[in-house]
Amino acid sequence: MEEKILEILAEACEDDSVKENLDVELFDSDLLDSLGFAELLAELDDELGVVIAPSEVNREDMNTPRKIIELVKERKASL
Amino acid sequence: MGFFEHWQFFFCLIVLLIPAVILGTMEKPLKHYSMGVSLFFIACIVGPETAQLVYLILFFILEWGVIRAFLVLYKQYGRDETTYHLTIVISLLPLVISKLQPFIGLDIFCFVGISYITFKVVQILIEIYDGVIDRVGFYEYAAFLLFFPTLSSGPIDRSRRFLEDWNHIYDKEAYLQLCTSGIIRLLGGYIYKTILAGRCYMYLIDAADKSGLLNEIRYAYLYGLYLFFDFAGYSLMAVGTSYVLGIRTPDNFNMPFLSRDIREFWDRWHISLSHWFRDFIFTRFVMRCKKKKWFHTKLQRANAGFLVNMFVMGVWHGLNVSYLLYGLYHGALLALTETYQKKSGFYKQYKDTGWYQIVSWAVTMQLYMFGFYIFSGRWLEWIPN
Q: pLDDT for B268-306, tens place per residue?
């Protein structure tokens, strides 16, 4: 599960380094921009069936790979 | 009087904020009091224009009905796309009709703030569809829509964020801190709007009478500076007033003239608007493109997204050729920036060097200043009749 999420995230960021460092800041470091974020949400929905609305979560709550993993796992568990 | 204009407004504002400061310091709820102040200002400012007041009330009731109806339908039938799209169209009708005013010659739904207040309604509807909002109380709805500091021109807040503050009772220390920073913003905004924007406007009037290429460049820069001080000044006052009332309305400007590319510019200029568009149009458009496989590559989706996003922003400013062109211009700039930054080896190699950033900053400034020139509509005078 965690691997799959990181796979999707790395693709959205076009950078594999996010798989290594789970606490890297995604937005300020330019790894994830508005476009990458949109692609990430679309993929999470497509691949894992986890729907996160674009305005639902504050970016501060999704700004590291670890936070994204936690959030997706939490959503998946409550499906 | 108007919102954040004329001494009468500021006199009433100061007098009416004093009880708020006392209530806040005593750790009492501010929400009922600020509701009362909002109604007072609406009565004083919109009230004398009877037609505007009637349309505001009509809008308020109509959109309340739309939201209630959509909540019921959503609970009954779930995420039904047709109902959702139809609801959004209905909720946009008053705004669309008001924007058609120059063509039909009738002032229907033309009341102060309709462009901004519509964002709030649409945000609530979209988030109901997202399953993020499941109930909307009438009092909360009224407080959010009619909150006077942001009623006429934003910043555009979000309902869940707003209501969290609205229901929050600050302890004394936290309130005083918020209140102090609110008062500083109010004063700063006043200086921006009255002194600095006023000064720019004088030079602008002067430039407006002259001609020649150099003068046009001067006009573009002065117009950009004027827009900034005027709107950033207003926004600071709106945010500052909100703070005194315990609402942490988001900031609208963050030193836009430091931007090193156009994307950064839209993260610093009219932020609450561009972030609204990002969250409710751009992101959703790109996600839809991906799901429906409308484009082959990520870059194509992005570029289409930028164009659609900024074109809608242009339309929102008003149905006139300068605004539409301004939207398309920025959409194209964002798309070109994206393509260049993704494809260019030169960019990837040098983007972090000092000289590159200085050049990029200077070029970016010419691009958005030219955008302001388009926005100003002055270029239309170049076209012979």
A: 999 999 999 999 999 999 999 998 999 999 999 999 999
- Alpha carbon separation from B40 to A20, B59, B109, B144, B326 (Å, rounded): 57, 19, 21, 15, 37
B307-350 pLDDT tens trace: 999 999 999 999 999 999 999 999 999 999 999 999 999 999 99
* Contact predicate B265/B333, CB 8 Å: no
Nearest CA in chain B to A38: B283
Residue B283: which of A34, A43, A46 has the nearest Cβ? A34
What's the pLDDT tens digit per position in B181-233? 999 999 999 999 999 999 999 999 999 999 899 999 999 999 999 999 999 99
User: Tokens at residue B77, please?
Assistant: 């039938």
Tens digit of each residue's pLDDT (9 = 90 or more) over B20-63: 999 999 999 999 999 999 999 999 999 999 999 999 999 999 99
Q: Is A42's Cβ below 8 Å from some Cβ in B?
A: yes
Measured in angstroms, the CA of B132 and the nearest CA of chain A are apart by 7
CB atoms within 10 A of CB B36: 12
Contact present, B20 and B33 (Cβ < 8 Å)? yes
Contacts of B166 (CB under 8 A, 6+ apart): B31, B140, B143, B144, B246, B247
Report whether B377 contacts B320 (CB < 8 A). Answer: yes
Query: Which residues in chain A touch residue B351, judged by CB atoms under 8 angstroms apart?
Result: none
Domains of chain A: 2-77 (1.10.1200.10)
Q: Which chain B residue has its CA at the smallest distance from A57's CA? A: B132
Catalytic-labelled residue, pool B6, B296, B317, B330? B317
Q: Which residues of chain A lie closer than 8 angstroms to B250, CB-CB?
A: none
- The β-bridge partners of B2 are B5
